[in-house]
From TrEMBL:
Protein known as: indole-3-glycerol-phosphate synthase
Regions that span the bilayer: none
Record GO terms (molecular function): indole-3-glycerol-phosphate synthase activity; phosphoribosylanthranilate isomerase activity
EC number: 4.1.1.48
Gene: trpC
Length: 265
């Protein structure tokens, strides 16, 4: 599955480069101000809510809402930041970033399989505040270079790991935000125990740690928070909930007092 998404993404990037060369994209770039990591740093708990309409493993996840509608609901009910899938395998598009940025005032992570510097420029031109970098599909050299280019553009990189060797490799870089993906991208099996297994090897040192995937309840969220994780990235658990607003408040760990407050809408 991962290999086929990577192959298709390489083809899509080659095509995008023909349609919109880097020189054209660069005209749309306004350098950002690291709003994404700032949003995580400011709170003792961060819900990054993901606009995820579909996944390659499960097909349609959310038929009832558009990406901007999801974004608006998440923002109104306590998400600190948003993640927007832009890859075709997740029924996303780079244009979704701009649509979301028009609608809500939260920092946005571009959820993509980044393989080429061109995609970093395209993400920033669309308005992304951060990009996902997946350690498993990049060489050490690419990873270091892409973190640097993202930083030059004023974007944060959320660097994703799944295994201990990947975590150790990423801790050699300047990554400020590390994400443990609880989902194995080869098998798609998900367990939040993956975060707890890697936690003893995590060296904070000014970094922030996010647990990604497979999180569905406030019990999961509280366990992760109490273990020292800074925040969570949640897609399916939110978009498949019967009451998306209530689930957003639950995973944002809003207290009863805060629940009535409408910060961002
Ligand atoms: O829908 P979930 O299980 O809450 O997961 C969200 C997010 O972590 C997931 O979409 C994700 C994290 N890293 C990725 C890399 C590729 C594809 C998808 C992902």
């Amino acid at each position: 599955m991962l290999n086929s998404i990577v192959d298709q993404t390489r083809q899509a990037v080659a095509l995008a480069k023909q349609n919109k060369p880097l020189a054209v994209i660069e005209q749309d770039i306004v350098t950002g101000n690291y709003a994404f990591s700032e949003a995580v740093k400011q709170r003792d708990w961060t819900l990054i809510a993901e606009c995820k309409l579909a996944s390659p493993a499960k097909g349609t996840l959310c038929g009832g809402y558009s990406v901007p509608e999801l974004a608006r609901m998440f923002a109104a009910h306590g998400a600190a930041a948003l993640s927007v899938h832009t890859n075709a395998a997740f029924r996303g598009s780079i244009d979704d970033i701009a649509r979301v940025k028009q609608m809500v005032d939260l920092p946005v992570l571009c959820k993509e399989f980044i393989l080429d510097e061109y995609q970093l420029y395209a993400a920033r031109a669309a308005g992304a505040d951060a990009v996902l970098l997946i350690a498993a599909i990049l060489t050490a050299d690419e990873l270091g270079r892409f973190i640097g280019v993202a930083a030059d553009l004023g974007m944060d990189a959320l660097v994703e790991v799944h295994t201990l060797p990947e975590l150790q490799q990423v801790q050699q870089t300047t990554a400020k935000l590390i994400g443990v993906n609880n989902r194995n991208l080869e098998t798609f099996a998900t367990s939040i125990e993956q975060t707890f297994a890697l936690l003893p090897y995590y060296e904070p040192g000014g970094r922030l740690l996010i647990s990604e995937s497979g999180i569905t309840t406030s019990q999961d969220a509280l366990r992760l928070k109490q273990a020292g994780v800074n925040g969570i990235l949640v897609g399916e658990g939110l978009v498949t909930a019967g009451d998306i607003a209530a689930k957003t408040r639950e995973l944002a760990l809003l207290s009863a007092k805060e629940e009535g407050r409408d910060n961002n809408a």
